[in-house]
Design goal:
The complex is a heterodimer of chains A (782) and B (104).
Chain A (H helix, E strand, L loop, with lengths): L8 H59 L6 H7 L16 E7 L2 H9 L4 E14 L7 E14 L2 E18 L7 E7 L10 E5 L9 E8 L11 E4 L10 H6 L19 E6 L15 H19 L9 H14 L5 H12 L12 H13 L1 E7 L1 H4 L37 H7 L1 E2 L2 E2 L22 E4 L2 E11 L4 E5 L2 E5 L4 E2 L34 E7 L8 E4 L5 E4 L35 E3 L2 H8 E2 L2 E10 L4 E2 L5 E10 L4 E3 L3 E2 L5 E6 L4 E3 L5 E4 L2 E4 L15 E2 L5 E10 L16 E6 L1 H4 L4 E2 L2 E2 L3 E16 L5
Parallel strand pairs in A: 5-7, 5-33, 6-34, 7-13, 8-14, 21-23, 23-25, 24-26, 25-27, 25-28, 26-29, 28-31, 29-32, 30-33, 31-33, 33-34
Antiparallel strand pairs in A: 1-2, 2-3, 3-4, 4-37, 9-10, 10-14, 11-12, 14-17, 14-18, 15-16, 19-20, 22-23, 35-36
Helix pairs in contact in A: 1-3, 5-6, 5-7, 5-8, 6-7
Chain B lengths: L2 H23 L45 E2 L13 H14 L5
The chains are: A alpha/beta (782), B mainly alpha (104).
């Protein structure tokens, strides 16, 4: 029988095959829910895991972009809620701050949707600050930022993946106590009056108690016997600041004067004349050695002796030789003649002691009594620049006097005679030895004071430290003519002017020059207690601001001070009540745990943070040791501080990229050194070089700014150093050079409002490394 | 092979293809949702932070002191008035010995 003859066989085959296929279809459909489903789920989980991580990265990127540069954002605000504010106390540590909890990262979402994947995703970010800096002067926190992203496919919420990662966060308040100083120099500097290498300090445009400060210290003052180791700033008439203080102190009425009858240029702030009789408390005996009086008497006696001897030419003699001549004259003359009486009076009463004593001679007494009745005490005040040629000041700080100051009457400070070592009384007296030491070699440094009130003299600055303004008084007893009855003859007395030379206050025995007067001489703010020419140097420099200066005291209160009431105004830098830290021990601490970036060497730092001559600043950055060469960097971007543990910093012109950027450079043990091919350099940064450990004695362990012969160095920020020499060999300024320090208002107050925009004093750094990472399948934390 | 067997073979193939096509057609097909995405939380503006291209040179200008009228200072915070005693510097030095040493 053939195949085709079997009926139903074909149908049977077809049905059997269809049945088999149906079974296979049914089986495949069921299997999907088993291993196939599991396979699909694994694939989906991997995809969701990647998307969640992508979302985290997107969220972090967004936070990074807003946290320091978008003040209108909640993120910006919430990060800063960690810090205490004027209106709210600091929240407790470890209290989570939820930045947002239902954010959809758009880029990740679009990426998934564009690929046909119906993704649902949301993110949450939480900031937790867990540690605060232990230092009172540093407000900084350690924290961490937790970012969570939940992702699932629409319709399959049970297959949710949550990715969580954590990053370290550093939150720092960049403000510091030292920001209020435009200039802080711990140690003595001999160049504050240097007229050829000037220092200019331009304070902030102040308001109320907001005023720039300067601390001028006297650490490492040259060894000398003077107990007063202050600093004296020589005012310069042509550069007087525009504040009323100087006129109040000196009596200056903005019109310069000159001594009456002289040919000098008008350079005196005031001229005063008083009759000598005002000084009755000074016994006349103090004036017995006045040469002008002695010369008159010797001339009269010589004339008498010559007359006795019949000589027609009179040679003026003195002391012993005059006694001899008088004796010869007496033996030849009539004993009833006036000449005989004059000679007899001289011979009988002259004493050889003390270099020649005429005081018992009645003729001498007559002359000196007349002088005491006729003398006028004239004195005037002027600046150092008017008395000395300060433009030619020597390395020792002294200078030759101007021509008018060498005239007999006016050389009370500048008599270039052998008696004063050809340097003048003011210099000579201070270079005298006392207790085997030079008295004070720094007092005679005359010149023009640093322009601490800005180029135009209109920027207030409050100076802390033992700093006084200085100008000079020149006094003399003026000549006069008077005819007197001298031994029955009318004689005209015309003593020459008596310059009242400077005599150190402490020298003994006291003369009429340095005897303190009991009754004061009316003269503006300064009560003249001495007749002699002298430096007026007891008024604190802040007196130039007037009698009322407002500032923040050490406790943060707005107070007002009268600079004339205490001296010095501030012996130490202003600080809290009860604190007495000397200026030599000021510095800036950093909390190493809140440093954003750490580098073992400057080379690594530069490799990491400098690109195309631009330095990218991000919070507090610490470099352990090495010399940091920033001379190749022209600008910086961002806010923060570079703290160099050990090493010098070479720097040329450096400017900020944005107006709001600011940079602080702090050297813990090193110097700043200007390195640039240009003669003028501008550095827009705060420069601090306070050597630690604080060392007063060692000359090498001091931080400074080496100017390396530049013509102009301008610092926009502030300058805080241990010492500052502008004229020290090749490391100072070029001749005629200027160091200008402009106190940047943004450094002074990083939270100020500038042009209607509040500045941000904080900086937040978010670490690049994940310190915690987890993928959670199926569970939700939010 | 005779005609009948060829019919069987081709029938099987045809039926398998039919069944598989039917199975594929009824499997889950993902539909592309083109509706706009609604944000559940908007974080203010989405302006990005300022970017500085490292390849662009910016000529920073000379600094000018702001006018007094354009600047208003804030009340200084408490920590700005703090002056550290020497003991704090000693403590910092001690911490520096540990935290200040950077491992390369």
């Amino acid at each position: 029988m053939s195949f085709t003859s079997k009926r139903g066989f074909l149908l049977y085959i077809v049905i059997a095959v269809m049945f088999a296929l149906a079974i296979m279809a049914f089986a495949l459909n069921s299997l999907k829910r088993g291993a196939v489903t599991q396979l699909a789920k694994n694939v989906d989980q991997n995809r969701l895991s990647l998307l969640a991580q992508s979302a985290n990265a997107e969220v972090l990127s967004m936070i990074r972009s807003k946290v320091n540069s978008d003040p209108d954002s909640q993120i910006f605000e919430k990060f800063r809620s960690v810090f205490p504010s004027a209106t709210a106390a600091m929240p407790p540590l470890r209290q989570p701050v939820v930045l947002f909890s239902n954010f959809q990262p758009q880029q990740t979402l679009s990426m998934a949707v564009n690929d046909g994947y119906n993704l649902k995703i949301k993110s949450k970010a939480v900031l937790t600050a867990f540690r605060e800096s232990p230092y009172n002067s540093v407000t900084a926190f350690n924290g961490y930022l937790d970012v969570y992203s939940q992702a699932y496919r629409e319709g399959f919420e049970e297959n949710l993946i949550e990715a969580h990662e954590r990053r370290d966060v550093r939150l720092v308040d960049l403000r510091h106590n030292l920001d209020k100083y435009a200039l802080f120099v711990k140690n003595y500097c001999p160049d504050y009056n240097n007229p050829r290498r000037r220092i200019v300090v331009e304070g902030i445009p102040g308001s109320g108690a907001h005023i720039s400060h300067a601390y001028i210290g006297n650490g490492n003052y040259p060894d000398c016997s003077d107990p007063d180791k202050s600093l004296w700033f020589d005012v310069c008439t042509s550069e007087l600041p525009g504040f009323p203080g100087f006129n109040t102190i000196s009596g200056y009425s903005n019109t310069l004067k000159k001594f009456p009858g002289s040919s000098m240029a008008e350079c005196l702030y005031s001229v005063n004349t008083l009759p000598f009789s005002n000084f009755s408390e000074l016994p006349i005996s103090l004036f017995y050695k006045v040469q002008a009086v002695i010369k008159i008497y010797e001339m009269f006696v010589s004339q008498a002796a010559a007359g006795c001897l019949g000589e027609t030419t009179v040679v003026t003699l003195s002391k012993g030789p005059l006694v001899e001549k008088c004796r010869r004259g007496m033996s030849a003359a009539d004993s009833n003649s006036a000449a005989y009486e004059i000679c007899k009076d001289f011979v009988d009463n002259y004493r050889d002691s003390g270099g020649g004593d005429y005081s018992r001679c009645s003729g001498f007494q007559k002359i000196i009594t007349t002088c005491a009745q006729e003398w006028k005490y004239i004195y005037g005040y002027t600046d150092a620049n008017s008395i000395w040629k300060v433009e030619n000041v020597t390395a020792g700080g002294t200078a030759a006097p101007r021509d008018w100051a060498t005239a007999l009457a006016f050389r009370g400070l500048s008599a270039m005679t052998e008696k004063f070592r050809n340097k003048g009384p003011f210099v000579s007296e201070n270079l005298d030895r006392k207790d085997s030491k030079i008295f004070n070699p720094e007092r005679p440094r005359v010149g023009k004071m640093a322009k601490i009130y800005g180029e135009s003299g209109d920027k207030k600055i409050l100076v802390e430290g033992p700093v006084y303004l200085r100008y000079f008084k020149i006094g003399f007893l003026d000549e006069f003519k008077k005819t007197i009855d001298f031994y029955r003859a009318q004689k005209e007395i015309n003593p020459e002017p008596v310059p009242l030379s400077f005599h150190r206050y402490d020298k003994e025995p006291k003369s009429f020059l340095n005897t303190r007067l009991g009754s004061s001489v009316p003269a503006g703010m300064i009560s003249e207690r001495y007749l002699m020419s002298r430096a007026v140097d007891s008024v604190p420099i802040n007196g130039l601001l007037g009698n009322s200066v407002q500032y923040f005291d050490g406790d943060g209160r707005e107070v007002t001070m009268n600079p004339y009431s205490t001296s010095p105004n501030f012996d130490k830098p202003i600080q809290k009540t009860g604190s007495s830290v000397p200026g030599s021990r000021f510095g800036r601490l950093i909390d190493f745990k809140t440093v954003s970036w750490n580098y073992p060497s400057p080379q690594q730092f530069l490799m990491d943070r400098v690109s195309n001559e631009t330095l990218f600043v991000d919070g507090v950055m610490y470099i352990e040791k090495g010399d940091l060469d920033l001379s190749g960097v022209k600008q910086f971007y961002g806010k923060g501080m570079i703290y160099l543990g050990s090493g010098n910093c070479y720097i040329g012109s450096l400017k900020r990229y944005n107006e709001r950027d600011h940079l602080r450079l702090y050297l813990r043990s090193g110097d700043f050194s200007i390195k640039s091919s240009a003669d003028s350099v501008e550095i827009q940064a705060s420069l601090s070089a306070f050597f630690y450990p604080f060392s007063k004695k060692s000359q090498t362990q001091q931080g400074s700014l080496l100017l390396n012969g530049k013509k102009e160095v301008k610092i926009v920020g502030n300058l805080l150093v241990d010492y500052l020499y502008t004229s020290s060999g090749g490391v100072g300024l070029a001749d005629g050079g200027v160091l200008k320090i402009c106190h940047d208002p943004i450094i002074y107050d990083p939270a100020a409002n500038l042009d209607g925009e509040d500045l941000d004093p904080y900086h937040i750094s978010i670490g690049p490394v994940k310190t915690l990472f987890s993928i959670n399948a199926g569970g939700k934390t939010f | 092979m005779d005609q009948a067997r060829w019919i069987v073979v081709f029938s099987v193939i045809f039926l398998m293809m039919t069944v598989l096509t039917i199975l594929h057609r009824f499997s889950v097909v993902e539909t592309i949702n083109r509706t706009p995405i609604e944000k559940s939380e908007v974080l203010e503006k989405t302006t990005k932070g300022e970017k500085v291209s490292s390849s662009i040179k910016h000529e920073a200008g000379a600094w000018k002191s702001p006018a007094a009228s354009s600047i208003k200072y804030s009340k200084p915070p408490a920590h700005v008035f703090a002056v550290e005693e020497n003991v704090s510097f000693i403590k910092e030095e001690e911490v520096k010995e540990d935290k200040g040493r950077i491992l390369e």
